[in-house]
Design goal:
Length: 279
């Protein structure tokens, strides 16, 4: 993995990067409001409870990152799990680094901090990537440099957002991995994607097994293209259409046999065609 070229964590920690941050303060968790730009959507109870137990025993080791708002209030930039766990543990103070950041910087810092920690599920990461692109007008190459991931990885994550809502929910829940998502994206049919996803979850398929299933499903779902017609047959067919004034199909087989299909749409038209063919 190449090093991140954007602000990232180095801009948040005192003494590193160009970002200027104050000393670590002890702030009442009740005076901190969550970040509305928080990319994390899923906070698992079991892991959060484990963090609560750890904090009760050892305290909050790593400070959260906040920005000053009004009065004694602060807004979280990064560290929402630690802040939530500290509140659940009943702490009256939590170590925090106060970052001088404009509101426009909060989103970028929050997203990059979470992405660089690799602390998000694949769907949350994909949504964070897309938000950075939309809000900061970044190209895939720009985003790759900001978050320290190669361009192909960024593109693969963004493709997850094209999947049906049901599948995205299963990815968010951890039932499907990024590898499973990539396998599903090989199939164009959304209904078939959902059927495959259910099978992957139900049967506990590995990513390799999911890839094999997607290859098989892609062949089944691929529409069959009509065979190229012989120009001479097509020309003869056109002449018959002009002569008879109705739809005609000339079916020529490889053994030099075939048949001519002539369509009629009423008894009167049948009489007309018979008169032409018999005379």
């Amino acid at each position: 993995m190449k090093p991140a070229l954007g602000k990232g964590l180095s801009a948040l920690i005192p003494g590193t990067g160009k970002g200027k941050a104050k000393e670590i303060l002890e702030i009442d968790p009740e005076n901190i409001v969550p970040n509305k730009y928080q990319p994390r959507r899923v906070f698992r109870d079991e892991t959060l409870n484990e963090l609560v137990a750890s904090i009760k025993e050892k305290g909050v080791i790593q400070p959260v990152i906040v920005r000053k708002t009004d009065g004694d209030s602060y807004q979280l930039i990064a560290g929402e799990r630690r802040w939530r766990a500290a509140k659940m543990a009943g702490l009256s103070g939590i170590p925090a680094i106060v970052k001088e950041a404009a509101p426009s910087e909060v989103l970028e810092l929050a997203l990059i901090e979470n992405i660089q920690r690799e602390d998000l599920n694949p769907l949350e990461a994909a949504e964070a990537f897309q938000r950075l692109i939309n809000d900061f007008n970044l190209t895939h190459d720009d985003l790759s440099a900001r978050v320290g991931k190669d361009r192909a990885t960024v593109t693969n994550y963004l493709r997850i957002l094209k999947l049906p809502p049901e599948i995205k929910q299963w990815i968010a829940e951890g039932s499907l991995s990024i590898g499973h998502a990539k396998a599903l994206l090989r199939v164009d049919n959304r209904r078939l994607q959902i059927i495959m996803a259910k099978k992957i979850i139900r049967d506990g398929l590995s990513v390799r097994q999911a890839e094999a299933l997607s290859k098989k499903s892609a062949v089944v779902s691929r529409p069959k293209l009509p065979a190229a017609r012989d120009p001479q047959i097509a020309s003869l067919e056109e002449k018959l259409v002009q002569s008879l004034g109705t739809k005609v199909r000339l079916i020529h087989k490889s053994n030099k046999k075939g048949k001519i299909e002539i369509e009629y749409y009423s008894l009167e038209e049948l009489d007309r065609l018979l008169e032409i063919l018999i005379t």
